């Protein structure tokens, strides 16, 4: 079983007298900066000069500096910019301003694990990775709750990296939900696997193929959208609340019987497992990371082409129309989705 920590195990006082620089003010950045500030921490946000977020962060009552100034100012520097630009920003603006004994923090392990960032030996290197979108990190904190986090320590130069990590997790509210101890390697590999095989790659491909199969057989696209895409969330909500058991309780026995007889026809057990193992192996061997790094160095042509192709897919076109009449007010902000 993994080591779990909760609020009672965390001492926010370990951040007393420490200046915390949050680099980036996107999904995670705004949440960490505001939650830490309201927890009584000394926070500033590091942004590019001219960033549109500069005014937003100031309006929220935060002090803002350039990335280089914030890194210099901070004793704790949390990297909350896009993973694919972190190495460049680290090299140019953060590394020259890190001092011995500082803590360099991450919310995802990609750059450390795949050695895109190699920090000096005299700083702590640790991760607090919330297991949820940044906007949820913020909204749950405001409501007195918190998104669970992963804690990992890659370098413990001061011997206090765990204390800093737990205090930070408490400061953003994560310790209310629980902090699980792991490693950069495990966090990176499981996060990439989850989003590729199941959450994003798997689920979206499954919905798309289901939609196409119905439409190609002559059924209305609206019907296909409701069946194969819209209902997905309703099923997932049941599973999140009470496991597969609650889902199966709530669906009809006909649906449950169909689940058992057809699930493994659609996803043949041995073949799907073998494919998933191959995806995992590419992640573990760095093959995926190499491709993603190269994609970013060559103008993102594949990503951009795929994104445009998906936008034109009939499930997206018909879905956009149908959703106009299904705004219940509690739908997630589209820019909150992330894994
Ligand atoms: P984001 O895309 O929402 O925000 C990134 C921010 O960085 C933006 O404000 C952007 O303007 C800024 N930025 C981009 N390039 C910059 C540069 N060159 N210099 C300065 N600022 C720059 O990112 P995010 O989703 O919050 O992700 C941040 C980190 O958190 C990543 O490591 C990610 O893997 C991790 N994470 C994200 C989530 C999530 O739900 N979004 C969950 C867990 C972990
Ligand atoms: Mg510093
Ligand atoms: Mg049905
Ligand atoms: Mg049932
Ligand atoms: Mg994830
Ligand atoms: Mg991810």
Topology:
Elements: E1 4-5, E2 19-23, H1 27-38, E3 42-47, H2 53-59, E4 63-66, H3 67-73, E5 76-79, H4 83-94, E6 103-106, H5 110-113, E7 124-130, H6 134-142, E8 149-155, H7 161-171, H8 174-177, E9 179-182, H9 184-199, H10 201-216, H11 221-250, H12 253-266, H13 269-284, H14 287-297, H15 301-312, H16 314-323
Parallel strand pairs: 2-3, 2-5, 3-4, 5-6, 6-7, 8-9
Antiparallel strand pairs: 1-9, 7-8
Helix pairs in contact: 1-6, 3-4, 9-10, 9-13, 10-11, 11-16
Bound molecules: nicotinamide-adenine-dinucleotide and magnesium ion (MG) (5 copies).
Biggest pleated-sheet summary: 9 strands, mixed
- As residue ranges, the low-confidence spans are none
Quaternary structure state of the chains depicted = single chain
CATH class of the largest domain: Alpha Beta
Radius of gyration, whole Å: 22 Å
Mass-distribution shape: globular
Number of strands: 9
* Beta-strand proportion: 5-15%
Distinct helical segment count: 16
Helix content: 55-70%
What is the name of the CATH topology of the largest domain? Answer: Rossmann fold
What would you note in describing this structure?
With 339 residues, the protein is an alpha/beta fold. The chain has 2 domains: 180 residues, 3-Layer(aba) Sandwich (Rossmann fold); 106 residues, no CATH class. Helix content is 56%, strand content 13%. The chain is built from 16 helices and 9 strands. A 9-stranded mixed sheet has the order 1-9-8-7-6-5-2-3-4. α5 links the parallel β6 and β7. α3 crosses α4 and α10 crosses α11. The chain is globular, with a radius of gyration of 22 Å. The mean pLDDT is 96. Nicotinamide-adenine-dinucleotide binds next to α1, α4 and β7. It is an enzyme of class 1 (oxidoreductase). Keywords: Amino-acid biosynthesis, Branched-chain amino acid biosynthesis, Magnesium, Metal-binding, NADP, Oxidoreductase, Plasmid. Its EC number is 1.1.1.86. Pfam families: KARI_C, KARI_N. This is Ketol-acid reductoisomerase (NADP(+)).
């Amino acid at each position: 079983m993994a080591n779990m920590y909760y609020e009672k195990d965390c001492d926010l006082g370990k951040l007393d007298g420490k200046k915390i620089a949050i680099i980036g003010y996107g999904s995670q950045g705004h949440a960490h900066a505001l939650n830490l500030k309201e927890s009584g921490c000394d926070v500033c946000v590091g942004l590019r000069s001219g960033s549109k977020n500069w005014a937003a962060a100031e309006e929220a009552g935060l002090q803002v500096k350039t990335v280089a100034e914030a890194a210099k100012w901070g004793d704790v520097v949390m990297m909350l910019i896009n993973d694919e630009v972190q190495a460049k920003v680290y090299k140019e603006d953060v590394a020259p301003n890190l001092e011995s004994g500082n803590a360099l923090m991450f919310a995802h392990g990609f750059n450390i694990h795949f050695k895109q960032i190699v920090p000096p030996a005299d700083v702590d290197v640790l991760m607090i990775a919330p297991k949820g979108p940044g906007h949820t990190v913020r909204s749950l904190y405001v409501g007195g709750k918190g998104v669970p986090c992963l804690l990992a320590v890659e370098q413990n130069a001061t011997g206090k990296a765990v204390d800093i990590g737990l205090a930070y997790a408490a400061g953003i509210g994560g310790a209310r939900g629980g902090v699980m101890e792991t490693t950069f390697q495990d966090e990176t590999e499981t996060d990439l696997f989850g989003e590729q095989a199941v959450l994003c790659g798997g689920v979206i491909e499954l919905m798309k193929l289901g939609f196409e199969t119905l439409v190609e057989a002559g059924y209305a696209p609206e019907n296909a959208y409701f069946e194969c895409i819209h209902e997905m969330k309703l099923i997932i909500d049941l599973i999140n609340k009470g496991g597969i058991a609650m889902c199966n309780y709530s669906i009809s026995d006909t649906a449950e019987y169909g689940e058992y007889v057809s699930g493994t026809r659609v996803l043949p057990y041995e073949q799907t497992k073998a494919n998933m193992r191959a995806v995992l192996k590419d992640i573990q061997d760095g093959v995926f990371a190499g491709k993603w790094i190269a994609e970013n160095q060559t103008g993102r042509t594949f990503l951009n082409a795929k994104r445009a192709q998906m936008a034109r897919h009939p499930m997206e076109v018909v879905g956009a129309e149908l959703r106009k009449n299904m705004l219940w007010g509690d739908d997630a902000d589209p820019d909150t989705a992330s894994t």
